[in-house]
């Protein structure tokens, strides 16, 4: 049992929690496939065939978790995946891989 949650653990738990939702994971995969150029919100909506309000809710949660950023160009809003954040979380999970250091019960 974890008795002390560090800020770092809280951040990674939040990121993993957001990606643990099927809709948000689907959105994030669309963004990752597009790369650093991002995807217009309207295009994400068409690709995944979800209502705009639902998409907005899920994107907002990922923005708040630091997984996605948004950029406006004229009248178009683009979403971009923050791959450094995903890499940080993956590195956090793997940081003590195979170290043999386990906490006794």
Explain the overall architecture.
This protein is of the alpha+beta class. It has a single domain, classed as Arc Repressor Mutant, subunit A, CATH 1.10.10.10. Helix content is 56%, strand content 13%. The protein has 5 helices and 3 strands; from the N terminus they run ααβααββα. Strands 1-3-2 form a 3-stranded antiparallel sheet. β2 (68-73) and β3 form a beta hairpin. The longest helix is centred in the first third of the chain and has 13 residues, at 7-19. The N and C termini lie close together (8 Å). The relative contact order is 0.15. The mean pLDDT is 91. Pfam families: HTH_20. GO terms for molecular function: DNA binding; DNA-binding transcription factor activity. This is HTH arsR-type domain-containing protein. Keywords: DNA-binding, Transcription, Transcription regulation. It comes from Pseudodesulfovibrio piezophilus (strain DSM 21447 / JCM 15486 / C1TLV30) (Desulfovibrio piezophilus).
Which architecture does the CATH hierarchy give at level 2?
Answer: Orthogonal Bundle
- Helices and strands, in N-to-C order? HHEHHEEH
Helix and strand content put the structural class at: alpha+beta
User: What is the CATH class name?
Assistant: Mainly Alpha
**What is the helical fraction, as a range of percent?**
55-70%
| Tally of DSSP helical segments | 5
Q: Would you tell me which CATH topology applies?
A: Arc Repressor Mutant, subunit A
Indicate the overall shape: elongated
Distance between the termini: 8 Å
CATH homologous superfamily?
Answer: Winged helix-like DNA-binding domain superfamily/Winged helix DNA-binding domain
What are the segments in which pLDDT stays under 50 over at least 5 consecutive residues?
none
Biggest pleated-sheet summary? 3 strands, antiparallel
């Amino acid at each position: 049992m974890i008795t002390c949650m560090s800020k770092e653990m809280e951040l990674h738990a939040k990121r993993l929690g957001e990606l643990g939702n099927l809709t948000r994971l689907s959105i994030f995969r669309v963004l990752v496939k597009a790369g650093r150029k991002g995807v217009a919100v309207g295009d994400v909506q068409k690709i995944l065939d979800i209502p705009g309000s639902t998409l907005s809710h899920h994107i907002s949660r990922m923005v708040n978790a630091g997984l996605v950023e948004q950029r406006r160009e004229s009248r178009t809003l683009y979403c971009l995946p923050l791959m450094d954040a995903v890499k940080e979380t993956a590195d956090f999970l793997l940081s003590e891989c195979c170290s043999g250091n386990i906490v006794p019960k």
